[in-house]
Amino acid sequence: MTEIIDGNAVAAEIRAGLADGIATLADAGVTPCLATVLMSDDPASQTYVSMKHSDCEEVGIEARDYEIDPEAPADDLYATIDDLNADPSVHGILVQMPLPDHVDEREVLRRIDPAKDVDGFHPENVGRLVAGHPRFKPCTPHGIQKLLAAADVETEGADVVVVGRSNIVGKPMANLLIQKSKLGNATVTVCHSRTTDLAAKTRAADVVVAAAGVPEMIDGEMLSEGCVVVDVGINRVEADTEKGYELVGDVDFESAKEKASAITPVPGGVGPMTRAMLLWNTVKAAGDAEAVDVELP
Ligand SMILES: Nc1nc2c(c(=O)[nH]1)N[C@@H](CN(C=O)c1ccc(C(=O)N[C@@H](CCC(=O)O)C(=O)O)cc1)CN2
């Protein structure tokens, strides 16, 4: 029987587990505060930001919403980041990706105060992660580690294939999985668009993390019997539904389910965990900034 790993349930546990830390902060007179900055009219990005605000409200994190016209000069975004960096009541800053083409993403990430960089994308935080002493783990790969742990998937000694080399998922995922830690100690292969014979690599894996951004590119034929499949893709494909689209992952769920011992669905798998770990990082950022020792789940 294939286990369907329920990301909504694990994310709800993480949110509940943050209550103690948030109460400790409240005792010290601190309300954790996350500022989100959206410079896009992409409906998916708008949905994600609005879900992040609802999550914050649920757990008692203050969320501030900054929206910048996608046609505005990049300087408008930089000025907003500078203001948020300087505001001591803001503990976490999240600039929703992707950004418009005329904005230099690297400059944006460099500009965010690394102590408020709850995405973990600032070069200083990337360096700390690679060196094995992360401050903020990027939300999606951190969420995947928590999902695997919740499903009792042992990464120690496992052969993991990560398909995709993005800065948001693929690279930090590989780095976290090779670390000497309870949720690491794996042997990792990172595959990408220039990988030869991808199917041979995925078939040799105990765990496949699909994060290529290509709808249903991994199917059952590419997997070995009993492997674990983590589907990071959240692709909107046109469909005859009320919304005009449906969400599909990077994995062909039906055929993959026939082979896998455990698999994450889309929606309801990795996505909710990305949001839960953003809350986690925000509570950590508030604790660090206010010198309050918070317990994290
Ligand atoms: N600054 C950042 N930008 C982006 C990140 C990120 O971690 N930081 N990751 C992705 C998108 N992302 C977060 O922003 C994200 C994607 C999906 C979900 C989610 O909850 N998905 C739901 C379905 C939602 C829907 O109905 O469309 C699910 O999978 O169940 C949360 C966050 C790119 N940008």
Automatic annotation (TrEMBL):
Keywords: Amino-acid biosynthesis, Histidine biosynthesis, Hydrolase, Methionine biosynthesis, Multifunctional enzyme, NADP, One-carbon metabolism, Oxidoreductase, Purine biosynthesis. Its EC number is 1.5.1.5, 3.5.4.9. Residues 138-286 form the Tetrahydrofolate dehydrogenase/cyclohydrolase NAD(P)-binding domain. Pathway: One-carbon metabolism; tetrahydrofolate interconversion. InterPro entries: Aminoacid_DH-like_N_sf, NAD(P)-bd_dom_sf, THF_DH/CycHdrlase, THF_DH/CycHdrlase_cat_dom, THF_DH/CycHdrlase_NAD-bd_dom. It catalyses: (6R)-5,10-methylene-5,6,7,8-tetrahydrofolate + NADP(+) = (6R)-5,10-methenyltetrahydrofolate + NADPH; (6R)-5,10-methenyltetrahydrofolate + H2O = (6R)-10-formyltetrahydrofolate + H(+). It holds the Pfam family THF_DHG_CYH_C. GO terms for biological process: L-histidine biosynthetic process; methionine biosynthetic process; purine nucleotide biosynthetic process; tetrahydrofolate interconversion. NADP(+) binds at G164, R165, S166, I234. GO terms for cellular component: cytosol. CDD domains: NAD_bind_m-THF_DH_Cyclohyd. One of its GO terms (molecular function) is methylenetetrahydrofolate dehydrogenase (NADP+) activity. Residues 5-119 form the Tetrahydrofolate dehydrogenase/cyclohydrolase catalytic domain. Gene3D superfamilies: Leucine Dehydrogenase, chain A, domain 1, NAD(P)-binding Rossmann-like Domain. Catalyzes the oxidation of 5,10-methylenetetrahydrofolate to 5,10-methenyltetrahydrofolate and then the hydrolysis of 5,10-methenyltetrahydrofolate to 10-formyltetrahydrofolate. Belongs to the tetrahydrofolate dehydrogenase/cyclohydrolase family. Homodimer. This is Bifunctional protein FolD. The lineage of its organism: Archaea, Methanobacteriati, Methanobacteriota, Stenosarchaea group, Halobacteria.
